[in-house]
Design a protein that fits this description.
- This protein is 69% helix and 0% strand.
- It contains 10 helices and no strands.
- The relative contact order is 0.17.
- This is Mpv17/PMP22 family protein.
- It is found in: Membrane.
Length: 222
């Protein structure tokens, strides 16, 4: 039986190939020229996809190992109910969230005599919600920047560009590609870290990213 990494390789490669072919169709249709498959561009994009599958696969596993589990419906409900502008700017609220604290707080002292047995409801244990937030945060920062730089570097090296020119392209292309990525990736991340099993996340990202792959293919001038 194939390993999860092998299955991810195969599925991600197929999806990357589809996105590149679709990008070529769009590009050549816009130029009003007869369709001709650019085999070299297809191989370059698929090769880039093959190179980035293992680091992304193990990155998702490492994230899940460090921040395991999914947020529960109760945690989401509690977070929504307790949401307030005051909480956003409260260091204690953020500390409680990221530490997973569930400490109980009693009523103020002047109310103790009147209501001896009344206590504030204990804070909900935020482990699942906290872990979701941490995974989401790292996916939008570390993973996004790393994948963007890898795309520009690898695709241009595969096209035969020299290293000095590749670095110039990284600086030149970073802002527009990141801007485009932020328009779709947050929604994908929310789904990935709430319902998708860890070994299916790279493939899920590739499936959701067929349109993103078309964008990258067009950006790479297929």
């Amino acid at each position: 039986m194939p390993s999860p990494l092998t299955v991810t390789f195969i599925q991600a490669t197929i999806l990357n190939a589809i996105s590149n072919v679709l990008a070529q169709l769009i590009d050549q249709r816009n130029s009003k020229s007869p369709f001709h498959l650019n085999i070299i561009a297809l191989i370059q994009f698929v090769t880039y996809g093959l190179i980035i599958v293992p680091p992304n696969f193990y990155w998702q596993r490492a994230l899940e190992a460090r921040y395991p589990g999914f947020p529960t419906r109760a945690e989401f409900t509690s977070a929504v109910r307790s949401f307030s502008l005051k909480a956003i700017f409260s260091p204690r609220a953020w500390l409680a969230l990221f530490s997973g604290s569930s400490k109980e707080e009693t009523l103020p002292s002047h109310d103790k005599e009147k209501e001896k047995h009344v206590r504030w409801a204990p804070r909900v244990q935020n482990s699942g919600l906290r872990n979701f937030i941490m995974k989401f945060f790292f996916d939008q920062t570390v993973a996004s920047v790393t994948n963007l730089v890898l795309f520009v570097v690898l695709i241009n090296l595969l096209k035969g560009e020299a290293l000095p020119r590749v670095w110039e392209l990284v600086i030149e292309d970073f802002r527009p590609i990141m801007s485009a990525r932020l328009k779709y990736r947050p929604l994908v991340s929310i789904l990935m870290y709430t319902v998708i099993p860890v070994d299916r996340r790279v493939v899920f990202g590739s499936a959701c990213g067929v349109i993103w792959g078309i964008y990258l293919s067009l950006y790479a001038v297929v």
